[in-house]
Design a protein that fits this description.
Number of helices of chain C: 11
Number of strands of chain A: 0
Chains: A mainly alpha (318), B mainly alpha (302), C alpha/beta (351)
Helix content of chain C: 25-40%
Largest sheet of chain A: none
Mean pLDDT of chain A: 82
Radius of gyration of chain C: 21 Å
Radius of gyration of chain A: 24 Å
Oligomer: heterotrimer
Structural class of chain C: alpha/beta
Shape of chain A: globular
Strand content of chain A: under 5%
Chain lengths: 318, 302, 351
């Protein structure tokens, strides 16, 4: 067991390095000189050379990478071109807001998607199964930024029930989770963000439950005279680890994939930060945000893999 | 134990029961047979065909020029002066732009998947069949790209390279190569362990011959199934990139881009603004259901 | 050569170009194959650990042993599907793979293999006639020639090429699939056929038919067979000589009659005693061997059978016994320190 944990952690290390190399390379696949954003268009050759040297761009690439990596490891991701603040502060503020969305969206998706999937899997082939399968396909096919717009049109424009965008009058600093005045800003983004995980969790749960019901031990339970409800409980208990693993992965996807939804709702999270950085061509923020988000994703995967054997004794690997 | 030569002739006493020959013969024939008898997949496949047809024949069926602007006709509701689906913020006909927009969206949905399936497929088959260090090198590299959520990877690459249709397709291709490679590698590794590969080697066949005659036919199924499921993802991602300003550039009609620019006008003509999303949604759901049908028809152990 | 006639009178035999004289067709000398164990440095599964034997032209050599004793690995070594770690393979008087010997590709034209899992050894995406034609095609025939060969060989194994040729593996029964596999192996006109548990997965009635088919084909085509099985009755039925394997080694080797009537190694005796008997008077009261075979990763020191041997003595735990002649005038070998005493005790027990 400890062997497995160590192996899995060791396996994540080269992946993390690979991720950092990809993020480092982002600056260089951008067309034009990376200095373009820093230098005025009429800079002289001498100025260019001085700035190049100051930023270390005159050194060979591997050396540049190592210098950059050294900075990154100590938390120095550079400063934002747009705001002049350190990237790390920009990202950590934004990340907290995104995590807030994900923390509500994932459990919501688990409850709704899991229930739908469990019901559908218990009655395979019946109308309820078909209905759930249809909803699940719709959930994974919907462009969620469009869904966000539709929800805004409906709840904000037509009926004026909920705010359309933002986090409230004072942004994230004035946000109070326990006050409806603030919390109501969460409702639409959370619903929108939960849509894809709902579809995925409904599908996963349906498949897991339907497969579990086909196994011999379910026949044994029935033969023992257990009620259908008790049988369902046994089935769910056995299907749960797989569903929880998928849920953990969805959490990681939401952290990294909320950019479109946050843009629609101008929710000041990491995705919105990215979207602003793209418009402003703010390369340090772009690079730093992507690096941090993808490392969090790697870590989420790692945690899911490590927790799984704890929940599910069947997959205790050597 | 008597000598072998004195034994009786056996072939005549052949009595084993023969399973009936199926109506359909090979794997692919049986796939088409099942597809033909699957009304849901056929129905949604027909819608996909209609969408494709409309996009191809856009100049013939679009009622207006998708680029023709008009200051007086800006942001008009459904049915305003022959504009069946209203007009956009520059007074261009929505229906025509939606029809033309299908061209770019379908292109961005299909081309990256096809290219990624070829590149990833080749890498996966070679890696899976050769095994060893070559495979480890290929798969560990893929794992790095796999470690990004796909939306993030797409935004990162497109954000660094800048917008445009070409860059958008390149980005999506890069995003889809690793998962394609993984699917092909898994299928190849499974096939490689089967005795018929060993038997082919025993007949003296070289690696390339075995891959060509025995591996590709068996890997094609899983790769096709997975690729078909990616088309819908690709359409969603492509329109998402355009929505962020990282894909198609104005004034080219594209569903994601239209959604992005019309977003400002939801207080004026809410229904018109939602239209491009409806187009994306319908296309994506149809591709998804067709892909599910394909999976059901192909995912059969024979 | 062709297969056009099917009555057995004017057939070309696969051994017609034999220039090797009376030398044995196949000699295996000290073959060894160890598989490294993942995650454990220096440890290896000793699947085949020093195996030597000869196969004479036209004979059937049976190889028996429990599952996991290295039979299948041995079969793959004989075709160079696995490259042996050590040892030598001589086919038709020439060393395989060595300089001045014959190439592996040539070996694979002259020796072929039939696998246990009749379903997994046919490509599910190809009609069986294409699976059969693949061998000749790879060996240089044109597609048309290969198809003609496939037709002939299919009818020879008792399958009407028009009826069965276009079928896919899932449209055939287990026995028919195994016939196709035999046809696939024979299509390149080999002299040696290695059969790895060819009938273990088949029903008993079908098994007999396939075994009879093999006998006829062997006679008609002048084949030499190496028949690997865990089923003693099957091996007794088809073989002229038998090798008994235990944990990667041959422990007894000799003519089929000697092995089955006068087994010398305690392991062979136990194997024979554990066969189910139809005679209630000869019912087995006590299990002849207890325990599972020891782990081939860590085979016991000395005689590998000693932890399960009812006659074990001090020497068995230290010294590794060699294969030695046990019956004068007969080529009957066994690897056991105590074979004489075992012989005595075994007869006492019988009486």
């Amino acid at each position: 067991m400890i062997r497995y944990i160590l192996r899995r952690i060791l396996y994540a290390v080269p992946i993390a390095f690979g991720v950092s190399i990809v993020c480092f390379a982002l600056v260089y696949i951008a067309p034009g000189d990376p200095l373009e954003t820093v230098l005025p268009p009429d800079a002289t050759a001498a100025t260019i050379a001085i700035v190049k040297h100051a930023y270390g761009f005159d050194k060979p690439l591997p050396v540049q990478y190592l210098i950059w990596l050294g900075h990154v490891v100590t938390g120095n991701f550079g400063t934002s071109i747009a705001t002049g603040r350190p990237v790390i502060l920009e990202v950590s503020d934004a990340l907290a807001n995104t995590a807030l969305l994900a923390l509500f969206a994932v459990p919501l998706a688990f409850v709704i998607g899991g229930t739908m999937g469990a019901v559908a899997g218990s009655f395979p082939g019946r109308w309820i199964d078909r209905a759930v399968t249809g909803i699940a396909v719709a959930g994974v096919s919907v462009p969620n930024y469009w869904l966000g717009i539709v929800l805004v049109i409906f709840f904000s424009v037509q009926y004026m029930l909920l705010p359309a965008t933002g986090m409230g009058p004072n942004g994230s600093t004035g946000f109070r989770l326990l006050q409806w005045n603030s919390a109501r800003f969460l409702v639409l983004p959370v619903i929108t963000l939960a849509m894809i995980p709902i579809g995925i969790l409904a599908r996963t749960t349906r498949a897991a439950v339907a497969e579990m019901r086909n196994q011999d031990f379910v026949q044994t339970l029935r033969a023992k005279g257990l009620s259908e409800w008790a049988v369902t409980r046994h089935v769910l208990k056995n299907a749960l680890p797989q569903i929880l693993a998928v849920m953990g992965l969805q959490f990681g996807y939401l952290l990294g994939g909320s950019i479109l939804v946050e843009t629609v709702f101008t929710w000041p999270g990491s995705g919105f930060l990215l979207s602003k950085a793209i418009i402003n061509r703010d390369v340090p923020v772009l690079q730093g945000t992507i690096l941090i988000l993808s490392l969090i994703f790697v870590a989420t995967n790692l945690v899911v893999d490590l927790l799984q054997p704890l929940i599910d004794p069947r997959i205790r690997r050597g | 134990m008597t000598d072998i030569l004195t034994l009786r002739e056996p072939v005549a006493t052949f009595t084993e029961e023969t399973p009936p020959a199926s109506i359909v013969r090979g794997y692919w024939q049986s796939v088409f047979y099942r597809l033909r008898h699957d009304p849901i997949t056929l129905g949604f496949g027909a819608i996909v065909a209609l969408i494709v047809l409309a996009a191809v024949a856009a100049p013939l069926i679009a009622p207006f020029d998708p680029y023709a602007q008009s200051i007086i006709a800006r942001l008009k509701p459904f049915g305003w002066r022959d504009h069946l689906l209203g007009t956009d913020e520059l007074g261009r006909d929505m229906l025509s732009r939606l029809i033309y927009g299908g061209r770019v969206s379908l292109l961005m949905g299909v081309v990256p998947v096809v290219i990624a399936a070829m590149i990833g497929g080749i890498l996966g088959v070679v890696g899976g069949f050769v095994g060893g260090r070559v495979n480890t090198a290929i798969m560990r590299t893929m794992d790095v790209f796999y470690a990004f959520p796909s939306v993030l990877l797409a935004v990162a690459i497109a954000g660094a390279m800048g917008g445009g249709i070409g860059n958008g397709m390149l980005t999506l291709t890069l995003v889809f190569v690793p998962p394609m490679c993984r699917v092909a590698e898994t299928a190849t590794t499974q096939i490689r362990a089967l005795d018929f590969i060993e038997a082919a080697r025993a007949s003296g066949a070289g690696t390339l011959t075995i891959i060509r005659y025995h591996v590709l036919g068996n890997v094609l199924g899983p790769v096709l199934i997975y690729a078909s499921s990616l088309v819908s993802v690709s359409i969603l991602l492509a329109s998402g990139l355009s929505f962020l300003g990282l894909g198609v550039r104005p004034p080219i009609p594209d569903w994601g881009l239209m959604l992005s620019t019309l977003r400002q006008s939801i207080y004026v003509v809410p229904l018109v603004c939602a239209l491009p999303g409806v187009a994306i949604f319908i296309t994506s759901i149809c591709f998804n259901l067709v892909s599910d049908g394909l999976r059901a028809a192909m995912d059969v152990r024979m | 050569m062709d297969y056009r006639s099917s009555d057995g009178s004017t057939i070309d035999r696969h051994d017609q170009y034999d220039h090797g004289g009376p030398a044995p067709l196949l000699v295996a000398r000290n073959l060894r194959k160890h598989f490294p164990v993942k995650g454990a440095r220096g440890k290896a599964v000793r699947a085949v650990d020093g195996v030597s034997f000869t196969v004479a032209k036209g004979e059937t050599l049976g190889i028996v042993g429990e599952s996991g004793c290295g039979k299948s690995t041995l079969a793959r070594l004989l075709l160079h599907l696995l490259v042996p770690d050590a040892g030598e393979l001589i086919f038709g008087g020439e060393a395989v793979g060595a300089a001045g010997g014959i190439a592996v590709k040539t070996l694979r034209r002259q020796a072929q293999m039939v696998f246990q899992d009749s379903a997994a050894s046919l490509n599910p995406r190809l009609p069986v006639r294409d699976s059969v034609a693949f061998g000749p095609f790879v060996q240089g025939s044109t597609k048309d020639e290969a198809r003609a060969i496939a037709r002939d060989i299919l009818s020879r194994v008792g399958l009407d090429p028009d009826m069965f040729g276009p079928r896919y593996p899932h449209e055939l029964s287990g026995g028919q699939k195994q016939r196709v596999n035999i046809a696939r192996a024979l299509a390149v006109k080999p002299r040696l056929l290695i059969l790895d548990e060819p009938v273990s997965a088949l029903d008993k009635s079908v098994e007999a038919q396939v075994l009879n088919l093999l006998r006829v084909l062997k006679r008609q085509l002048g084949l030499t067979l190496v028949f690997i099985s865990h089923d003693l009755n099957v091996v007794r039925y088809v073989s002229r000589r038998v090798a008994v394997m235990y944990l990667g080694r041959i422990v007894e080797f000799g003519p089929v009659k000697a092995i089955f009537e006068r087994p010398q190694h305690p392991y062979t005796q136990a194997l024979l005693a554990s066969r189910p008997s139809m005679d209630p008077a000869r019912r087995i009261e006590m299990p002849p061997i207890t325990g599972d075979p020891p782990n081939p990763i860590d085979p016991p020191a000395g005689c590998r059978f000693h932890p399960r041997c009812p006659f074990v003595e001090a020497i068995c735990e230290t010294a590794d016994p060699a294969l030695r002649v046990v019956e004068d005038g007969k080529s009957h070998f066994a690897a056991c320190h105590l074979r004489d005493r075992v012989l005595g005790r075994g007869r006492l027990a019988d009486a």
